[in-house]
Amino acid sequence: MGALPLLLIAVALGWPLAGVLFKERSQPEKLALAWLLGAFVITWQLFIFLFWLKAGTFWWFNLIFLAEAIILWLFLKAKINWRDFRAASGAKPGLLDKILLCILALVIMLSFVNACGRGNIGWDSLNIWSIKAKQIYYSGRVIFDSNNPASWQSRAYLQYPWHGSLLYVWGNELNGSYSDAVNNVINWFYYVSIIILVYGFLAIRIDRRGAAAFTLMLASAPIFYFHSFNSYSDLMLGCYAALALIFLWRAWLGSKYAFIGLSMSLVAAYTTKNEGIFALLAASFFLLVFLTRQKKWRQLAWFVGLTGLLLAPWQIFRMVNHLGIANSTAVTAWHWDAIYQFWRTFWLNASFNIFAWVVLAVLAFAAIKIYADKKLLVAWVYVALLFSAFLYVYISTTSYQDAVYDTTISRNLITIFPALVIVTALSWQKISKK
Amino acid sequence: MFLQFFAEKLFTINIVQSPLMGGFSLVPLLGVLCMGVFFLIFFIFDDSVEFFKKDVKIIFLGIVLLLWLPFSVGFIWTNALNAIKHLAGGTVDVRWQSLMCEIDSNQRLQGLLCSIAATEQAVRKEVSKGVSYCLLANPTAQLYMNYEFYGYYRQEDCAKADYAFVSKSDKKIGTRADHLLIYDSSGQPTDIGRFEITVVDEKLGSFILKRK
């Protein structure tokens, strides 16, 4: 329960925003969105407090967060309305739907047991995200003296963003003592949030049964499940990349403030992992084209301005400290063998169960209808661009070594996975003999 | 048995991002089976068969879930069972934690770090129960552990510690019979009492010793 105060503060901050951005959506979806946006709002400010203002990890930052939450609640006239998930058909869930949802609930519960019962024992969890949090937690501040073994420059991976680690710092501050379980449970919050958002998004657009089945596949794909209780940042990034797709979709449907949600989710992705830049560039491009074609200049200006403002603290810090964005360097030869490694990781290994084959089948049987549906086609292009960006990195940089040893591709594909589940489910809906 | 076979022999291997631990995967077979069966239903059978009059996409979903669930549920259950056993046990089994790390790891260094994390977690839980530790880890272990032990597990605490966590290779540590010695910078030994080995962590190159 150590992470519960963090959840409450994040949701208090995010709820008024969720009320505006997800106005007609159900209570659980708003809650999930509130966590995702609230967590970003917290770490965005913590980055300014700790890295720019060089402040300590003072408890009264919580008062600032709560004051902001109160102002947002009053200013945006936020309220709680107890609306349940809505399905496109309006029908109540049948027996089979309930069975699928029960299995889903069991999977989520078992993940929670794991989150509570394990240390931070994954490689990147231990060596990057948690150790950075630990340094700040035990030092009570970010140490800028590079001779100090606990300084922020003392570890490798300097160019990695801070969202995950700062969230762990604050979760542990609120817990009162450092606990690996807090870090794991924070990732579990992300896992539950994306499950709720994907189910809600699909239930209104396909049907409850399809939504439950595809959401169950998302939740129980072995590597996605594995990351639900390990404090890596790949699942966080996957959540924000999928959230960006959801907001892009809402923008196409004419939702007035979708660009705000899109801007926040894209910057959150970029401040979670460097690979978030792929989502940032791809989704921004599609939104800018859409707004230009619609001649919505005001929204376009707001989107550019807000994104620039949100990006500024981390991007300027990055430039001032000469931190690159790449995790690897370019190589002189192309490594086409990385393509086979992608194939092996996604289609032959068991990390994603048989989902890659499901994607192939759906594409084969619904390709023409996907092509005819412009929104869905662009959503597929968004996912394909993310996939291609990773592929390009592995083919053209020293990362190909990680491809050969299969240490990172499966984790990188987690970034794409929730968005891929959404577009596959929407396309599955189009399979018919007619 | 069935679930365990699937989970242990197939899935726990491939989840680990590790070709070194390799293994045979049924996924391509199941994937082709999934596509093949649906292909047959879609193109060969017509609506004269009562069952296939249903919406084909629901049939497709049924096939996928039938193939999907045994694997995923098997993997998830086996995984959770370990965590439940661990939580219910109340004590930390370092070997189990190290085993979990084995599953995650594909490099020796990663195995080492996992072992450190597991040991740290073990020590921390024990400490929370009032057990005191003398921490004399090697530099690598200290790098990862000392934030947790900042300031309160210094060598002077060792004379009254219930347990000692020591590195095999640490030159500052010595033994005389079953006594544990700590050498200061001038080479003078301090006898901190009689200890016996309780856990040997080969990967970390360290022992956990209990005061006799």
At a glance:
The complex is a heterodimer of chains A (about 425) and B (about 210). Chain A is mostly helical and about 425 residues long. Chain A has helices at about 5-20, 25-50, 60-75, 95-115, 125-140, 165-175, 180-205, 210-220, 220-225, 235-250, 260-270, 275-295, 295-320, 335-350, 355-370, 375-395, 400-405, 410-430.
Termini separation of chain A: 52 Å
- Straight-line distance between termini of chain B: 43 Å
| Amount of beta strand of chain B | 15-25%
Task: Report the C-alpha radius of gyration of chain B, rounded.
Answer: 26 Å
Give a description of the structure.
The complex is a heterodimer of chains A (434) and B (212). Chain A is built from 18 helices and no strands. Chain A is mostly helical and 434 residues long. Chain A is globular. Chain B is α+β, with helices and mostly antiparallel strands and 212 residues long. Chain B is built from six helices and six strands; from the N terminus they run αααααβαβββββ. Chain B has helices at residues 2-14, 27-43, 56-89, 94-104, 108-128, 139-145, and strands at 133-136, 163-167, 173-176, 179-183, 189-201, 206-211. In chain B, α4 (94-104) packs antiparallel against α5 (108-128). The longest helix of chain B has 34 residues, at 56-89. The two termini of chain B are 43 Å apart. Chains A and B meet through α4, α5, α8, α9 and α15 of A and α1, α2, α3, α4 and α5 of B.
How would the blueprint of this fold be written?
The complex is a heterodimer of chains A (434) and B (212).
Chain A: H1 4-21, H2 27-52, H3 61-75, H4 95-117, H5 123-139, H6 163-175, H7 180-205, H8 208-220, H9 222-227, H10 234-252, H11 258-270, H12 276-293, H13 297-320, H14 337-348, H15 355-372, H16 374-396, H17 400-404, H18 409-428
Helix pairs in contact in A: 1-2, 1-3, 2-6, 2-7, 2-13, 4-7, 4-8, 5-6, 7-8, 7-10, 7-18, 8-18, 10-11, 10-12, 10-18, 11-12, 11-13, 12-16, 15-18, 16-18
Chain B: H1 2-14, H2 27-43, H3 56-89, H4 94-104, H5 108-128, E1 133-136, H6 139-145, E2 163-167, E3 173-176, E4 179-183, E5 189-201, E6 206-211
Parallel strand pairs in B: 1-2
Antiparallel strand pairs in B: 2-6, 3-4, 4-5, 5-6
Helix pairs in contact in B: 1-3, 2-3, 4-5
